[in-house]
Design a protein that fits this description.
The complex is a heterodimer of chains A (559) and B (234). With 559 residues, chain A is of the alpha/beta class. Chain A has one domain: TIM Barrel (Alpha-Beta Barrel). Helix content of chain A is 31%, strand content 22%. The longest helix of chain A has 16 residues. With 234 residues, chain B is mainly β. In chain B, β17 and β18 form a beta hairpin. Chain B starts with a strand and ends with a strand. The longest helix of chain B is centred in the first third of the chain and has 5 residues. Chain B has one domain. Classes of the chains: A alpha/beta (559), B mainly beta (234). At the A-B interface, loops of A face loops of B.
């Protein structure tokens, strides 16, 4: 039992903005005062300190074949030793962290939940093994659907019942959390050396278009009423002029409704927000995108903010990665994951003086500033934009125009010409930033017990040495930047894991997965699956992940 | 001047980032300086006899140091004299100062060094002045002189500085070289694969790749990467 005393609480989901209050924890949950015996509580003095729910990273690449291939490709990353083995496990990595380091570093900035945003279905046993090796945080993985042959087939046949059954089957077999879509149709076209360039390009051999794939998957996802909406990495990622594709894609869901959440989450939008016609005249399309997102009540986005320094591009969008490899001349690895998707990996360094990199950096911030705080989640698309350990930097940048002005002095002047960042006066409040890192990502994912401090929520709590009554984030941005990197406490499931910025205990989180089989007729696709597996290299009975394979699975049943 | 002698014959490798800076520290601090003996963390005095003579910024390593790695790593000034053989990674990331090795050197001598001088009186092994695996730039400045012979992969991805080998060397000299100079007075194997810049001077016989074109005073290439590196016979 815990008694967190006199903390200054910001909890957007419950409308609390800087109220001094006590929080009580019992059996890993937040409870009413009457539920605990105060004499038996461990008391944490949070006087004049900021008390928040643990952070939720809804889009990061933390487990599975991509990051592991990245580690293999980048031996130089493993020279940074973060912690030698002692009471805790050894952890290493500059940007591409080892599994123990991933959990520890999240806890060290007060984050307690992280979602692997693209898991190739055939690789799901590996993804879950790696997730199980990550300490502290709660986890989930999103399998990729947008280039999976049965999805094309059922879309072409306009058989939504079968598509729904297939999604339910796939989520159960991969122990997946939701429907991820990466460059729908484009990765399949890449297997013949091509790509799709618009929403109406046909996918070779299937006679379906990205427009149909996205629309059908969103409809199926909504009819199944999964906790998370479709999670989309748009077509034409990284291509100048692509902001129009992004806007067109968002408009596909106009008129669709879900009272609890968005019906479409568009991810790492920074990479999909370029105006211009080539890398010579590329500019920001963030303003136009922000207008569209703000005008729709059923679409959310996340930033995909680049951080200057080392990063590693890794996405299920193999054709884009090939382009990036050609553009930068950097090492490249490509993976074809057997008629379900593909992936590519390219090391990258974002340099402030490089006009394109500076532009990408500015566009991420523009999106964060111009989109309403209940529609844009803070993310770096780790490790594509950079390490999530830099989230405090982004939080400070969103809150302080002065800090942005100072940073603008060191970046390429191209930014002044091609973006409006310098002219944006918006300074997000602490409340809004808490929204973007806690309550909103939890709502976007449909995780009701995350991202807030109300009774019944998981006791995932971060306490920072920031007094909102005294600190002015606009002027004291360095305090914000420093203190968000060094929580006084991070509490996971009621246990103190971080004290004064250092890990003091290792706990193990859960892995959420979604079971929607009750909503569909699983028999309907039985024959389709049998014929699918006739041409597959894994036998149907050997395919997928069973509960016993995982350390602590948590099944969320959809009714 | 700080003089170190191994107390016994090392069975496993020792990792000790010994730099001349150590000679300026107090005796207590020197004695307790952390080094690794295999997987065990040890203090310097558990493995070496320690003797101080005067306050000169100099380190004398007396005895067989062939199992001791990372000597002079990252050093920026002062001098190290090794009166014997030295282990791998000697002078890696070096920024200045001087290392003299009276015996032989192991692999990765002066890897990714930026400035300073390394002299080896005996032979050296492979990967002199190279980039570590995954890094894109090797040696960027300073000088390495080998009086004897050297092994394979000399100056891979090197971008500046001079490597001079008075004897012969092995294969793959100056692979992916971007700048600087490699001088080999004796013979060697393949040179300049994927070379973009810099110059390789060779006194004896060597193997030329077919991707170099003849120029007035030597060869230019590697044309496969539009390179402007030069190979010259001396």
């Amino acid at each position: 039992m815990l008694w967190i005393k006199n903390g200054i609480v910001i909890d957007p989901k419950n409308g609390i903005d800087g109220e001094k209050m006590d929080i009580f924890v019992k059996d890993g949950k937040i409870v009413e005062e009457s539920e605990v015996n105060k004499n038996e509580c461990q008391v944490i003095d949070a006087n004049n300190k900021l008390v928040l729910a643990g952070g939720v990273d809804m889009h990061a690449h933390i487990a599975g074949s991509k990051i592991n291939t990245g580690r293999t490709m980048r031996p130089e990353e493993m020279r940074i030793v973060r912690q030698t083995a002692g009471k805790l496990r050894a952890s290493m990595g500059r940007v591409l962290l080892t599994s123990p380091a991933i959990g520890y570093e999240y806890a060290k900035i007060g984050y307690t939940t992280a979602v692997e945003a693209a898991s190739p279905p055939i690789g799901s046993p590996h993804t879950h093994e790696e997730l199980d090796a990550i300490p502290v945080v709660d986890k989930a993985a999103l399998p990729v659907f947008g280039n999976w042959h049965p999805v094309f087939k059922f879309t072409a046949e306009k058989d939504r019942e079968k598509l729904k059954a297939f999604i339910a089957w796939a989520l159960e077999r991969t122990k997946g959390f939701g429907v991820k879509v990466v460059n729908p149709g484009g990765v399949e076209a890449w297997m013949y050396g091509g790509n799709v360039r618009s929403l109406d390009d046909e996918v070779p051999n299937f006679g379906v278009t990205p427009r149909e794939i996205i629309t059908e998957l969103v409809k199926a996802n909504e009819e199944l009423n999964l906790p998370h909406s479709v999670h989309l990495h748009c077509n034409n990622l990284g291509v100048p002029g692509n902001y129009q594709t992004t806007i067109e894609t968002m408009k596909l869901v106009s008129g669709m409704k879900n009272d609890d959440r968005q019906v479409l989450h568009v991810t790492h939008v920074q990479f999909n927000a370029y105006a211009g016609s080539s890398w010579r005249d590329v500019a920001s399309g963030a303003e136009e995108i922000a207008k569209v997102v703000n005008s729709m009540d059923n679409v959310t986005i996340d930033m995909g903010q680049p951080i200057f320094g080392h990063a590693t591009a890794m996405t299920g969008d193999a054709p884009f990665q090939f382009t990036l490899h050609k553009l930068t001349g950097a090492r490249w690895s490509n993976k074809d994951s057997e008629i379900e998707g593909g992936a590519g990996i390219v090391p990258i360094v974002y340099l402030p003086k490089n006009p394109v990199h500076a532009l990408q950096w500015a566009i991420g911030l523009e999106l964060g500033l111009l989109v309403d705080s209940d529609k844009v989640v803070l993310s770096t698309d780790y490790p594509n934009g950079g390490p999530y350990t830099e989230y405090p930097y982004i939080m400070a940048m969103l809150m302080s125009k002065r800090m942005r002005e100072k940073e603008l002095e060191r970046v390429s002047p191209y930014v002044q010409k091609a973006t409006s960042l310098a002219a944006i006066d918006v300074e997000k409040t602490l409340y809004e930033v808490v929204q973007m890192t806690r309550s909103l990502p939890a709502r976007v994912l449909g995780l009701e017990n995350k991202g807030h401090l109300g009774v019944g929520a998981d006791a995932d709590i971060a306490i920072y040495n920031i007094n909102p009554a005294e600190v002015d984030p606009s002027a004291q941005y360095d305090v914000i930047n420093a203190e968000f990197r060094r929580p006084v406490y991070t509490i996971k499931g009621g246990e103190v894991v971080v004290r004064d910025g250092a890990i003091v205990a290792e706990t193990w989180g859960r892995t959420y997965w979604v079971d929607a089989r009750k909503k569909v007729d699983m028999q309907a696709i039985d024959e389709d699956l049998n014929s699918f597996f006739e041409y597959y290299s894994v036998e149907r009975r050997n395919y997928g992940v069973d509960d016993y394979w995982m350390r602590s699975p948590e099944r969320l049943e959809v009714n | 001047m700080l003089i170190l002698k191994p107390k016994f014959e090392f069975e496993v490798s020792v990792e000790a980032e010994l730099t001349p800076d150590l000679a300026e520290k107090g005796l207590e601090e020197i004695r307790s300086f952390k080094v690794w003996y295999g997987k065990l963390e040890k203090s310097l005095e558990e493995l070496f006899e320690i003797e101080m003579q005067g306050d000169e910024k100099k380190l004398v390593l007396d005895g067989d140091f062939s199992k001791v790695k990372w000597i002079g790593a990252g050093m920026s000034e002062g001098e190290i004299v090794v009166k014997g053989n030295v282990g791998a990674n000697c002078g890696a990331y070096m920024k200045g100062g001087r290392i003299v090795i009276e015996g032989n050197a192991d692999d990765w001598l002066g890897a990714e060094m930026k400035d300073g001088e390394i002299v080896v009186k005996g032979n050296a092994k492979n990967l002199i002045g190279c980039a570590y695996y995954g890094d894109v730039t090797g040696m960027q400045g300073g000088g390495i002189t080998i009086e004897g012979n050297a092994g394979n992969y000399i100056g891979e991805k090197m971008a500046g500085g001079v490597i001079e080998i008075k004897g012969s060397a092995g294969d793959f000299i100056g692979t992916e070289m971007k700048g600087g100079e490699i001088v080999i007075h004796g013979d060697c194997g393949f040179v300049g694969g994927d070379m973009k810049g810099g110059i390789i001077k060779i006194g004896g016989n060597f193997d030329l790749l077919p991707t170099f074109r003849k120029a007035e005073d030597g060869w230019v290439g590697d044309v496969l990467v539009n390179g402007e590196g030069k190979i010259v016979k001396i």
